[in-house]
Amino acid sequence: MENRVGFRFIPTDEEIVDYYLRLKNLGGDTSHHVNLLFMQENRNDYRPKMSLTGFIDHSDDENSDSDLISATTTVSLILLW
User: Fold this and answer.
1) CA angle (76 as vertex; 50, 30 as ends), nearest 5
2) The overall pTM is greater than 0.85
């Protein structure tokens, strides 16, 4: 299929998930309906293999971004069933 002038392939995130990942997970068969399940992953559940040996305190630094950094990071995972 020939693309028209100015046509660009810019799929949305939903199109990528719906088409490409479903196609890959189902072995190329897109006739099945896929349920999307969104889960949250807590990054604080994982512990480092090696403990830190030191800590540098930058709490008195005026340019510190410590107020902007959250202790909990969540990630949305999409599972295809």
Assistant:
1) 125
2) no
